[in-house]
Specification:
The complex is a heterodimer of chains A (339) and B (320). Chain A is elongated and about 65 Å long. In chain A, the strands form 2 sheets. In chain A, strands 2-1-3-11-4-8-6-7 form an 8-stranded mixed β-sheet. A 3-stranded mixed β-sheet of chain A has the order 5-9-10. Chain A has 13 helices and 11 strands. With 320 residues, chain B is mostly helical. Chain B has a single domain, classed as MetI-like fold. A two-stranded antiparallel ribbon of chain B has the order 1-2. In chain B, helix 4 packs parallel to helix 7, helix 5 crosses helix 7 and helix 12 runs antiparallel to helix 13. Classes of the chains: A alpha/beta (339), B mainly alpha (320). The interface between A and B is medium-sized, with 35 and 33 residues.
Amino acid sequence: MKRHVFTGIAVLALTGAALTAETQINGAGATFPNPIYTKWFSEYNKLHPDARINYQSVGSGAGIQQMIKKTVFFGATDGPMTDEQLQSAPGKILHFPTVLGAVVPVYNVPGVSQELKFNGEVLANIILGKVTKWNDPAIAKLNAGVNLPSTDVTVVHRSDGSGTTYIFVDYLSKVSPEFKKTVGVATSVKWPVGVGGKGNEGVAGLVSQTPGSIGYVELIYALQTRIAYGQVQNMNGKFVKASTAAVTAAASAAPSKMPSDFRVSITNAPGDDVYPISSFTWLLLYQDAQDKTQAKVMVEFMKWALTDGQKYAPDLGYAPVPTPVVDMEMKALGQIKTQ
Amino acid sequence: MSRSRARPDEILFRAGTGLFAALMIALVAAIAFELYRQSKLSIHEFGWQFWQTDNWDPVAGEFGARPFIWGTLYSSILALIISTPIALGIAVFISELAPARVRLPLVFLTELLAAIPSIVYGVWGVFVLVPLVRQLEVNTPEWLKVVPLFKGPPLGVGMLSAAIILSIMVIPFTSSIAREVLRAVPQAQREAAYALGATRWEAIRMALFYARTGIIGAVMLGFGRALGETMAVTMVIGNTPQVTLSLYAPQYTMAAVIANEFSEAAQELYLHALVEIGLVLFVITLVINTMSRGLIWSLGRQKKPRRIKRMISTAAAGSA
């Protein structure tokens, strides 16, 4: 009996020793990149069993808060931190774009089976409640040949604060000065009209049930659930249907204007193949973190995620970061103090 | 036996249970204090305006809770109006009328309703209730749409769906307690009523009157549950902050806005405004519980057998 107890203690001590050799890193933030982050952390753990990275998808806002309070080692957000937030942090925080996502318009118009076309102005006016019928001349002009009904437009938006909302209203604010003035850009906004659904599934559910409705969901969600979504006219006047390639194209134009801290909005980017409602999602790291072991592991992980890791992106519905941006990020990772 | 000779284990027992009771009070006080501490910015910025204004604009940093307070109270009151007669009907049937072999399954089923998680109610609401309500709204006759209660586009999601789903969730709570309260009415009371030539209905009315304070306690417990319900409500209410009588209009509740916006609220003032909504909900629940306690107290001043009084206080404690 006694011997068993001793063996037990010995085993415990040994596993305890094994655990100390492992580096545990905790992060929290955006829900939008959660599927790929989870994939990355598990794949990376297979390659480097001593690196265990945990991620909690609590939302961008909560991720930023926890980052500022230093309760997590890294954060993640769909909208870059504001200057005010950066100043309130106890150290310098760096942004790293990890993948790209896009937001697509979904609709339910009785009698219309064709793919509808939208432009920024029409979308903004619909969301503002100024376009109230589906056969409004503004919509009809973009969709020649489509027999649009006189059904009332019902706007469906996200009720929960969300990076998806951030990307969508960021785009609308760029294309419509009136939208920028009356609504503005944030993860939760004051909607002039419409009803709120919780999560992508809530919005998609309401849209599919409500005749005459229009809403917006993440591209990944639309691809996975195979719901129909519309084309959006880009800055060059071309109508583009969202795809991972069209989203990467949006980021390809970015390097020339990329600020050194990577806090850049790429909605409504120029280029023929560009899908205009696209955005980066960012991972947040302290430049001078207290725990240098964790910092070192995290830098190694980031180098892997931005190169080998990118191959997992398209399958999960994300667009990979274009190579010139990756090169810039590799340089920026060098700023992080690992000893 | 005199007090001074109380045994030590009794003293210990008294102290132990007293400590637990004190812990309860400390917990409530701690919650209130923490809610206040975390909403200070918003309280100082908006003051009483917070209760009176409609503007909820996270971008501009302007926050007013009136539509959320309205939505919470309106949906809960509507839920009570729908659920109370049904719940009392169930309670009366089970305790007074049902044959024994129907009684047990009925008790079991109503209590099963209470055990269903609210997210399940929400999903059922989205896929079953909301389309039904939309059909109802689409088929509203024109002359009825003049009434403010029935104005608005037929969306399906909105106050009506929320009130119906809340009432379904509240029924098992109200009916279970009302049933127990009715069972506590002494058999002698009923026999006396029959002896005086009362019909069955008159005897039941007498029992209901006898148990009225306990039944009010049961209804208030349901009200408390409706006030705080979050998940199922946010899935069917439409989440649009506006103050309107319309049953068809999408509206919003306090619990729902906290659940929806808390995780993405990054600005300090925004967070404090959301916590202040929690504080407002806390205060409103407190006021309503105090009021119902007062009602029960004023009704219960007539003389009454011990057993009923105990039932009443249990029911009231449950709703607090």
